[in-house]
Amino acid sequence: MSLLKKTFLVCVFLPLLFFCGEKKKRETIVIYVPATPASIPVLIAGSQMPNTSCVVFKNHSQAHQLFLNKEVDILFTGLSVGLIFFEKNSQIRILNSYVTGVTHLLTYGNKISNFSQLKGKTIIVPFENSPIDELTRFFIEREGLVYGKDIKVAYALPNGAKALLETGKSQAAPLPEPLVSVLLSKPGPVTYSFSYYDYYNKIAQNAKGYPQVAALLRADFSGEKKEYLEKLNYELRAAIQLTRENPDEAVRLTINQFGLSAEIMKKALARSVFHFNSSDSLAREVYEYYRTIGKPLPEKTREIFLAIP
Questions:
Q1: Is the peptide bond before 178 cis (omega within 30 degrees of 0)?
Q2: Residue 92 shares a structural domain with residue 107
Q3: Distance between CA atoms of 287 and 136, rounded to whole angstroms?
Q4: CA-to-CA distance for 92 and 83, rounded, in angstroms?
Q5: Residue 21: which pLDDT band, with cuts at 50, 70 and 90?
Q6: What three-state secondary structure class fits 278?
Q7: pLDDT, tens digit, 9 for 90 and up, residues 95-114
Q8: For the residues of 193-255, what is the DSSP string, one character each?
Q9: CA nearest to 73, candidates 51, 97, 98, 99
Q10: Which of 129-133, 277-281, 284-288 has the lowest mean pLDDT?
């Protein structure tokens, strides 16, 4: 097992060891969001919620641990992480998903339009067996190529992949925002090729992309806070609309939460696709996605989706 694969598994599974008993109840509801401009709508929504503290995190493993240790009430993270947690703890629930496009393929030198143009070259992917790895494999194999043979695959964390691409040691890398906008803001040979959102939509023949980020919480919390969660979904829809219609205002409201310039944040937002979904509709969308990429989910997984609109 490679070091990066071990690292990925540790980041996901180690926090499960810290899931413990009841904590003393807090009056303030704590929401954790990742340090990416795609979190802007959640921060805006959170500012409209009563007794709520929104925290921007950079360390995913630590955030996962705090959530499973009941020190974080709602955790926005990769939807696939929620599915993994659910396999180990059936009390994990998903409230919503609101991001369907933040990953883009950057190339060294020429722009490409399909993966066949990378034959004989190397693509850098973050984490073996990660969601981006699985989707990249699906794309490449769909074009009749052998993953890891026709196109060589190496693994590096996003910042490491960024460095390898900048120096030409890799010919391609699928990267999330804001790394894409940061890289493209610099002069050099790194080129924007295409978004995974568009590429997936051509295959799936839809215009929704695939759910990437989800709001995770515990079943006991959802039972106690139904009205709060309904309001959070309402405010998140409104915040997404604001972000689409007035990105300058959305950036102004949240820029102090990120160590990024307003210009980079606006560019990252322009390359991010927001699509709110919840309840049975979200379940159908998630099941459809995993069937499409050849990894169908068991029927029991439907329990993870809360019936809150």
A1: yes
A2: no
A3: 18
A4: 9
A5: very low
A6: strand
A7: 999 999 999 999 999 999 99
A8: EEEHHHHHHHHHT-SS----EEEEEEHHHHHH-HHHHHHHHHHHHHHHHHHHH-HHHHHHHHG
A9: 51
A10: 129-133
Per-residue pLDDT for 14 more than 60? no
Work out the mean pLDDT of the chain and round it to a whole number.
91
CA distance 70 to 83: 18
CATH of the domain at 17: 3.40.190.10
Helix 247-254 with 226-245: angle, nearest 10 deg: 120
Q: Which residues of 33-59 are buried (b: 16+ CB within 10 A; e: fewer)?
A: bbbbbbbbbbbbbbeebeebebebbee
Provide the number of structural domains found in the chain: 2
pTM above 0.85, yes or no: yes
State the amino acid at position 57 in one-letter form.
F
Q: Does residue 104 contact residue 196 with C-beta atoms inside 8 Å? A: yes
Q: Give pLDDT tens digits for 236-247.
A: 999 999 999 999
Of 147, 172, 204, the position where a domain reaches its end is 204
Supply the range of the domain harboring residue 76.
3-101+212-304
Tokens of 202: 């051509």
